[in-house]
Task: inverse folding
């Protein structure tokens, strides 16, 4: 359940565009939320540096970098996963951030 919740939080609301031929754009830094907070990194071996993981899937988790072109969660990944368990609060915190990133 923790893995599914983490995946939900790290991809919430971020969509890839579809080209006229029906193909999705390549996964990029804008398609996942980072959680560069020290607590997330310490507990999860830098897995919250999610955008770099997608850009460089073979890179070991301890070597992942922060991509400044990707959206950032307002709190640590464990805190955001806990918040996601209360959908009205989750949407209140995240939906405006999603709109900001999808309109940019």
Result:
């Amino acid at each position: 359940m923790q893995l599914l919740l983490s995946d939900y939080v790290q991809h919430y609301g971020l969509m890839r565009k579809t080209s006229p031929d029906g193909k999705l754009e390549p996964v990029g830094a804008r398609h996942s939320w980072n959680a560069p907070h020290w607590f997330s990194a310490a507990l999860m071996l830098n897995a919250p540096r999610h955008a770099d993981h997608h850009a460089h899937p073979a890179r070991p988790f301890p070597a992942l970098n922060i991509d400044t072109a990707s959206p950032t969660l307002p709190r640590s990944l464990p805190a955001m996963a806990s918040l996601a368990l209360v959908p009205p609060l989750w949407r209140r915190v995240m939906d405006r951030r999603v709109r900001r990133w999808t309109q940019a």
